[in-house]
Amino acid sequence: MRFPMGITLTYSGDGLVFGQPGATTEWNKADILYTYRDWMTIWNSTYSTLTSAEESSLRAEVSEDDCIEVFFVDRFSPQDMDGGGNTVSGGTESAKVISSDENADFGVDLTHLAHEFGHVLTMKHPGQGFPTAASPHRVDGSTNTLMCPSGFNNDNPERNSQWNKDNVANPLLTFVLKLRTVGPDCTDDSDCGACP
Known about the structure:
two-stranded parallel ribbon; 6 helices; alpha/beta; three-stranded mixed sheet; single chain; Collagenase (Catalytic Domain)
């Protein structure tokens, strides 16, 4: 969008269009379907380049009680902060995701959004030791699946498991009928292999 005197306004959000195919493909294997609502734009240029000190302020900008908010910023500072994105309150109706559009800009992390959605669905990174007494609702995801941590500008495996499918949870999940699809790529850690 152009304004008089050379002022230019750009929107963040390239990461959604870039990440949707991977999220759809990987979670469809677990019979999870997502619906997306219309954009809500936050008019605050402070969030264009987001620092860790600003994350909680950004998350406080929108709080809908019947959906998961996914925030997109142009970039993080430092660039590799949170591996390109993070999720808080996973497994609860108040889960929120923040993602950097640089995942799309570099065109590498095709399953980044699917990975963050896995955290929304209660999955942790493999081998973190969940569930715990303090977080009985959180579960370690399977190795060599999209739940493996990847770091910035690297892709998570384009795989999902029966274990991940069997352990997803979030109070906002609803039951719908869908056509049966191909299903998970592997069963659990014993046959999925190690994270890259």
